[in-house]
Amino acid sequence: MSTQSAVTISLVKEAEGGPFVFWHDLAAGYAKAAELGYDAVEVFAPNAEAIPVDELKALTAEHNLKVAAVGTGGGWVIHKWHLCQPDAASRDNAKGFIRSIIDAGAQLGAPAIIGSMQGRFEGEVGREQALDYLRSALNELGEHAKAAGVPLIYEPLNRYESNLLNRAEDVMAFLETLDTDNVKILADLFHMNIEEASIADALRTYGRHIGHVHFVDSNRRPAGCGHMDYGPIAAALKEIGYDRYASAEAFPWPDSDAAAKATIVAFNQYLA
Ligand SMILES: [Mn+2]
């Protein structure tokens, strides 16, 4: 099996203006994704209760599209919770929020993604303390996801969004300190373009640990609308035998339909 295609649908009002292709209408997003030949959708909901599992199961059956992954960023965008906050109550809120999204996604066979919910170190929380908080949370949530039958996806971010782990070498060293074997890496090409000397080499460093890819261009516009060099990226993904999703997490530029179309054209050119 080769790489599968996916496209994002955001249901989060507070995230408007963010890098998601389709917005607020699951049925319309599924219909358009199916028409363009996508394999799956990635759903970003404000919380677990807002993930309509039954409706998604029906849409999945109707359009023969799977749910590639579910996002957890609503906990940060709406509540400003994250896993490295100084007080235990806030960290527990963050973990509970993510745990409930893992459970909802698992009913659809979809893993949850931890991106902005990882947080950052600042103030009274130093770097090592924050990494300890993150390690503990990933161990706990990774094992929770394992029991639910899905991996847990951890997304390294660029330096402007988190100061914890920005580069593949550092991420891999950290990953080796986890007790759980159920945490996979999300390789987001936009973040990697900012941080890595070579995106292709970084993908090889991650190797079999990659569980999801955010397929997007250098400027967060859809693939093909920036200056990303996809040839070496595609070659690296093929070399490591990547067979999960390349998901369009891009601005709806110039509009949602055109962004979805541009991405699937680039996907078919490089990754299909
Ligand atoms: Mn991403």
Can you tell me about this structure?
With 272 residues, this protein is α/β, with parallel strands linked by helices. It has one domain: Alpha-Beta Barrel (TIM Barrel). 42% of the residues lie in helices and 15% in strands. The chain contains 10 helices and 9 strands. It has an 8-stranded parallel β-barrel, surrounded by 6 helices. α1 runs parallel beside α2 and α4 packs parallel to α5. The longest helix has 22 residues. 53% of the residues are buried. The mean pLDDT is 98. Manganese (II) ion binds next to loops.
What is the third-level CATH name, the topology? TIM Barrel
Q: Name the shape in a single word.
A: globular
Average pLDDT, rounded to a whole number, is: 98
For the record, what CATH class applies?
Alpha Beta
Q: Helix proportion of residues, in percent? A: 40-55%
Uncertain stretches = none
Within CATH, the superfamily carries the name Divalent-metal-dependent TIM barrel enzymes
How many DSSP-defined strands?
Answer: 9
Sum this structure up briefly.
Helices cover 42% and strands 15% of the residues. It is α/β, with parallel strands linked by helices. It has one domain (4-270): Divalent-metal-dependent TIM barrel enzymes (TIM Barrel, Alpha-Beta Barrel).
Give a quick set of tags describing it.
272 residues; alpha/beta; TIM Barrel; 15% strand; globular; binds manganese (II) ion
Summarize the helices and strands and which ones pair or pack.
Elements: E1 4-10, E2 22-23, H1 26-36, E3 40-44, H2 53-63, E4 66-71, H3 74-77, H4 88-106, E5 112-114, H5 127-148, E6 152-154, H6 168-175, E7 183-188, H7 189-195, H8 199-206, E8 210-214, H9 230-239, E9 245-248, H10 256-270
Parallel strand pairs: 1-2, 1-3, 1-9, 3-4, 4-5, 5-6, 6-7, 7-8, 8-9
Helix pairs in contact: 1-2, 4-5, 8-9
Bound molecules: manganese (II) ion (MN).
